[in-house]
Design a protein that fits this description.
The chain is α+β, with helices and mostly antiparallel strands and about 220 residues long. Helices cover about 30% and strands about 35% of the residues.
Length: about 220
């Protein structure tokens, strides 16, 4: 039997806090030595919006979206996962007085199921139709989220979501693993220190536990 095919994967780092979106833009990153001057040039940096309430741009392998209360850095290139972590570390080493409250490592996997049968069987495995058959017509799994305790001493949780993929059609499945941390001290300097510690020490274990979760789920059908 043909196996599910991983078509798209990526990782994002999401930080909740109090940000000034206009600071973090390509030229600033280049001036701080976090990216090259060439990467910050108009030929490469693609600016979506730079505004006091939101900054959104992409540079080759990287996309940054910063709102007043949320910072999101994303890449879909596996070879640049550690580069993403290092960039975020560099930003918050410089902006170490930024108030931060939460951080999440998010890995996402878009699979194409080999057939309509396996696509439907996946939903049946995770959310059996029997309890629903007399309640709604033609029930099927659209979106399911499970949450569990963290496997370490940090405050937070591990959350796994699966749904129909918005990018793969037909028979696409998305599996999203959210490794969430609640920072103990939201004092700006102490909060950033804990954030940097998590980026340094938990990044690799987080990436390593996400893929087996996705692989086991997608093969449950």
């Amino acid at each position: 039997m043909t196996e599910p095919t991983l078509k798209i994967e990526g990782v994002s780092i999401v930080i909740i806090g109090d940000f000034n979106p206009t600071i973090i833009q390509p030229l600033w990153l280049a001036n701080q030595g976090l990216i090259s001057q060439e990467a910050a040039s108009p030929n490469i940096a693609k600016i979506g919006l730079i505004h006091r309430d939101i900054t959104d741009f992409s540079i080759d392998w990287l996309r940054l979206n910063i709102e007043r209360n949320k910072f999101v850095a994303t890449t879909e290139e596996e070879s640049n996962y550690d580069s993403l972590r290092d960039l975020v570390k560099g930003i918050f080493q410089i902006l170490r007085h930024t108030p931060v409250k939460q951080i999440g490592f998010n890995r996402f996997f878009h699979y194409k199921m080999p057939s309509e049968e396996t696509f439907n069987r996946y939903g049946d495995c995770l959310a059996p139709k029997n309890p629903w058959k007399d309640l709604i017509k033609t029930p099927g799994l659209l979106d399911l989220t499970m949450m569990g305790e963290r496997p370490d001493s940090y405050k937070g949780y591990l959350q796994v979501r699966t749904c129909v993929s918005p990018k793969i059609n037909p028979h696409g499945i998305l599996i999203h693993v959210n490794d969430h941390f609640e920072l103990e001290d939201t004092n700006s300097i102490q909060g950033c220190r804990e954030l940097l510690e998590i980026l340094e020490n938990i990044w690799e274990p987080s990436l390593q536990r996400a893929l087996p979760i996705a692989t086991r789920l997608v093969n449950s059908a």
